From TrEMBL, chains A, B:
MF (Gene Ontology): carbon-sulfur lyase activity; transaminase activity
UniProt key word Flavoprotein: no
GO BP annotation list: amino acid metabolic process
Domain Alliinase C-terminal, chain residue ranges per copy: 72-431
Keywords: Aminotransferase, Pyridoxal phosphate, Signal, Transferase
Pfam families assigned: Alliinase_C
Gene3D superfamilies according to UniProt: Aspartate Aminotransferase, domain 1 (3.90.1150.10), EGF-like, alliinase (2.10.25.30), Type I PLP-dependent aspartate aminotransferase-like (Major domain) (3.40.640.10)
InterPro entries recorded: Alliinase_C (IPR006948), Alliinase_N_sf (IPR037029), Ethylene_sulfur-biosynth (IPR050478), PyrdxlP-dep_Trfase (IPR015424), PyrdxlP-dep_Trfase_major (IPR015421), PyrdxlP-dep_Trfase_small (IPR015422)
Organism: Vigna unguiculata (Cowpea)
Keyword Methyltransferase: no
Protein name (record): U3 small nucleolar RNA-associated protein 4
Family: Belongs to the alliinase family.
Quaternary context: Homodimer.
Cofactors named for this entry: pyridoxal 5'-phosphate
Amino acid sequence: MVAVPSLFSLRHLLVLSLALNVSLILRTLYHETGEGNKWWFCFKKKMMADAESCFTTSPTASLHNSTRENIIDLDHGDPTMYERFWRQMGDKTTITIPGWQSMSYLSEGSNICWFLEAEFATEVVRLHNVVGNAVTEGRHIVVGTGSSQLILAALYALSSPDAAEPISVVSAAPYYSSYPSMTDYQKSGLYQWAGDAENFDKEGPYIELVTSPNNPDGYRRKSMVNRRQGLLIHDLAYYWPQYTPISSPSDHDLTLFTASKSTGHAGMRIGWALVKDKEVAKKMTKFIELNTIGVSKDSQLRAAKVLKAVSESCKEEKQENGGESFFKFSYKVMAQRWKQLREVVDGGDMFSLPQFSPAFCSFFGKETEPQPAFVWLKCEGDVEDCETFLRGYKIITRSGTQFGASPKYVRISMLDTDETFIQFIERLSAIQERE
Amino acid sequence: MVAVPSLFSLRHLLVLSLALNVSLILRTLYHETGEGNKWWFCFKKKMMADAESCFTTSPTASLHNSTRENIIDLDHGDPTMYERFWRQMGDKTTITIPGWQSMSYLSEGSNICWFLEAEFATEVVRLHNVVGNAVTEGRHIVVGTGSSQLILAALYALSSPDAAEPISVVSAAPYYSSYPSMTDYQKSGLYQWAGDAENFDKEGPYIELVTSPNNPDGYRRKSMVNRRQGLLIHDLAYYWPQYTPISSPSDHDLTLFTASKSTGHAGMRIGWALVKDKEVAKKMTKFIELNTIGVSKDSQLRAAKVLKAVSESCKEEKQENGGESFFKFSYKVMAQRWKQLREVVDGGDMFSLPQFSPAFCSFFGKETEPQPAFVWLKCEGDVEDCETFLRGYKIITRSGTQFGASPKYVRISMLDTDETFIQFIERLSAIQERE
């Protein structure tokens, strides 16, 4: 028993010394180049833009390079904030898949969506019932490789191959920045991006994407084009209690949800559609068949386990000594982040934030305030290009122009890790003090 | 210790008796309706065709309904044959994923394909080196949700958004039945299906899909349009030692592989592309980003484990007391199936099969014969519509017309379970005797 601590200490000493060396080497490199995080930043940038743009530096940026601060990339809504909760859950959501399982293309069951895993479908229905955010009765579930694939499947299903011209696809600005490119990248003869729904005045049928709460600005949304012949796709990725008060179960023709924003499992690439019309569900299924011949079964099974854990955490919370539910945890983190953010922004006059009204949330049984997954930040005063301005302080955001809005706005993710969020708040506070 | 065997026997008796009851009930139902497998068949049919067609019965079919044989569906290449091998492997390929893992959209590493899991990329390279079926040096790996998504990504990457008209997409008949619909379902202005490569004589650039060994007929293929300005996509889904002699490592600009046909894991939806040109790899990555924002990480991790096991099984086989490698197992199953099939077909003059020449296989270090994943069966004599003819005997196949060929041909999967394959051989033998 004596030898163990001695060996332990020796090994520890070695590890510590090695860590110190690595740290010193990295620090030297970082201070020499001022580019310590540039590679990671560029790698992340590749996600939505061309890699080339990583290597261009804005004039403002060069002014501040001397500060040697690291880059805070909040361009994407990568939901790494949730990792902490799932680590706390330990083995509860660990999934084990034997090598011989789920080999077939097909899934058991009699669903229109022939690749839908029954277990996943069950947990989708259960979770919506627990949360009360969507009517599932009389709906066909179509599973997709994330909700992106389901948006495309819905465009395909709602358009007609025999139409004289592509059907117009609109969404009210500021709209999700990927809608235009997702709609047009294939140069499809079936559908075509037609811009801001509020300015849309073309006669005939159209598809309107209604995102509620909205990405980027977090406001609740309804259809903007008040006309007949409109086909609606409701993208409710953020209609969960941590982001917005749940007023009533959504009850639309075609509604989309995704694991990425509900539980934070973006890497699973799992989304689901609740579809009223059988023919639309069939056509969406056909799209996914031609696109990817189904959806990963491994991820469907994992998603089933995760959704089940979320539902159970809500049930257990109500019991004596029950832990905190997933939504309570997430709500608290979001509430704290928004509080900190509002404090910093209100401490100066450089920036402004959207203002939301509290409303009764049927899930929490009390009044709650919207606390969106993104900040739709406005640069006040002389700053005309907020994205470039913040980039000068090494805060990477997405410009309002990408959302069909003014460059005075930027979208900033609120779902990154605690560490990154704290750095962001500190950096924002420092900007207010300096400028 | 005495109580255990007694309890054991009682339980066994109960299970046996229950099984007997269920079996008898099912048998009664089946004999009453003659439709025992119809639901399953219709469900499977939904995969590639409209469900409605399930409920139409061909005139020939009604002639034989009295035989009360079950339906043998070999329309799709569902690779359930491989399940036996993976069961034998036990826990070796079992994967465990904790709830907090792989939450981000992004993968670590510096790949052009920003959602590519490093572990998966490593195992792809390793397996190709072990098998010797593809050059991986100087190639970028792009992972896809099955190789279907990669075909679409390649069409997108090889076409130009500024071209005056869509680029022609061709493949030599008989070609994979999904190529035309995959190319045209979006009515893309970028690319357009232009049919059989052998009849293609339009000037200007074109994309040729080269499938080798070919689906449906199993022959080795080279580009058929012998012209410049041709952009080639090599679909080598079946270039594995169980199906065809490995002559040399494939060395093309853009090559596609898939787990579905190499290891039999169709439900994972994992394919990969080996891409020489950096810009093409970038554009393919962009396509997948806009289509599905990446590829399931869970399935990539599982695929990595499965490919690793395949590589290791090849290494272990060479050691003393080493088990049978994955390819040896699969080769033997395929050899036996083709032998049985040839015996039945040669026993009459109703059908004929493609004839293949043996060649040296560098992987097995000996001469082997092609034994494709599909049979390209021809009905000889008066039978003009082979698909309808076999459907009359409740054998579901895919008609030659779907492959741009004569209705005298059908494609039949050779990758189904042992049970289904034996039934198929018996049914085929019975047809030869009856007709």
